[in-house]
Amino acid sequence: GSSPSRSRSMPPPASHSRMVDSQLFRAVACAAAARGNHTEAGEAFAVALANARNLGFSLFLAPVLADYGRWLVDVGRAEEAIPLLAEAHELFEAMGATVWLGRVAATRARLPALAEKTTLKTCPSGTALELTTWISTVPSPSTTACSAGVALARV
Q1: Residue 155, number of CB atoms within 10 A of its CB
Q2: Mean pLDDT by groups of 10 residues along the chain of 155 residues
Q3: Does the predicted model carry a pTM greater than 0.70?
């Protein structure tokens, strides 16, 4: 397939903006994913996300995060989808976008189970820290991928 930036369906660069690009590449990515062209979908989602992040407006960023996260789950890359879906949820919650929150929740419900353990520790300085560790298994037809993570937060 051709690169999404060179597609005949794209207007010339001078005739659109990052705002338009973020949503245009999001639409291109969703269409490519629906056709099963995962290379084009991945490239277009990356461009859409970069443009939406550069804008700095939740209204344009959140739908890209949600759709990109859903596609990542669809193609078995759930561990990459987790932070995108979490960010989308936060943004939609702040906007009060209940329909989009439902879409994100439906995608998150398809994520593999996470084994999570939280431990509270106190540093010598008296600062309380919350340490969260998790392991995620993502089954696929031929193998099981496993990822792990650690998060540290002040409480």
Answers
A1: 9
A2: 49 66 93 96 96 91 97 94 96 96 95 61 65 49 44 53
A3: no
